[in-house]
Amino acid sequence: MIGNTDWWIHTRHNVDLVQTTHFGLIPVPYDFDYSGIINTPYATPANNLPISQVKTRFIKNYCHNAEAYSDAIDRFNQQKTAILTIFEEAEVLDKKHKKSSVKYIEDFYEIINDPVQFGRYLDESCEFVNTIPNEAPK
Description:
This protein is mainly alpha-helical. The protein has four helices and two strands, in the order E-E-H-H-H-H.
């Protein structure tokens, strides 16, 4: 959703694992200055990723078909208004950044709710992720 590729689960780069009773281990990423929604002037994707801008969304996950994401998509859709409201009402953001953040989130919803677009997005990411070694990029 926020275009964050600056994490790596294998080496826990910018991600912690939190143990929960109900869901087991949950990865919790942090350090978002290289995410597309923040879009800092110095942010660039890792050299080994097939994207040239941090605003370009790229899923770092092993291959699953679109159906595997249906529960997550439903949850995102249920929270859409609340998520957008966070950015629209954020006092720390000026008008320009509110507008660009809301647009970035709305673009995410457009992707996940269009089966063709979402399938293409998964296919492009899947091709890359299945070829990476089991260690973090340097």
